[in-house]
Amino acid sequence: MDINEQIKSQLEENPVILYMKGTPQAPQCGFSARTVQAVMACGERFAFVNILDNQELREGLKAYSSWPTYPQLYVNGELVGGCDIVLELSESGELAEMIKSAAKQQEA
């Protein structure tokens, strides 16, 4: 499976997935820490990938998404954005709506 197929598979299998540096319990950068806090505050389960564990994925996802930095949050296979966008959506309440909607679709 090439890296693009791997990314597509991860996005299809996980309605909410965060590509980040580190893990939710031990983020490896401040941007990932703030982003994971915002996602966790929504109260729904989400998947994560520590991009520091896989150099090929780290580079491949940048090309796949046309987004040069991490973290990257995807909801229903669509790139939401990085830290600043996620925090703005969190403050407005839109992030919780998006994530809760994705979680409900998965349950259905």
UniProtKB/TrEMBL annotation:
Q: Which residues bind [2Fe-2S] cluster?
A: 29
- Give yes or no: UniProt keyword Transmembrane: no
Gene3D superfamilies, per this entry?
A: Glutaredoxin
Q: Which SUPFAM superfamilies match?
A: Thioredoxin-like
- Example GO molecular function: disulfide oxidoreductase activity
Q: Which residues form the Glutaredoxin domain?
A: 16-80
Against InterPro entries, the record matches this protein to: Glutaredoxin, GRX_PICOT-like, Monothiol_GRX, Monothiol_GRX-rel, Thioredoxin-like_sf
A Pfam family matched in the record:
Glutaredoxin
Keywords on this record? 2Fe-2S, Iron, Iron-sulfur, Metal-binding, Redox-active center
- Tell me which family the UniProt entry assigns to this protein: Belongs to the glutaredoxin family. Monothiol subfamily.
Record's PANTHER family? GLUTAREDOXIN FAMILY MEMBER, MONOTHIOL GLUTAREDOXIN-S14, CHLOROPLASTIC
Protein name per UniProt = Glutaredoxin
Source species, please? Marinobacter segnicrescens
Q: What are the top taxonomic ranks of the organism?
A: Bacteria, Pseudomonadati, Pseudomonadota, Gammaproteobacteria, Pseudomonadales
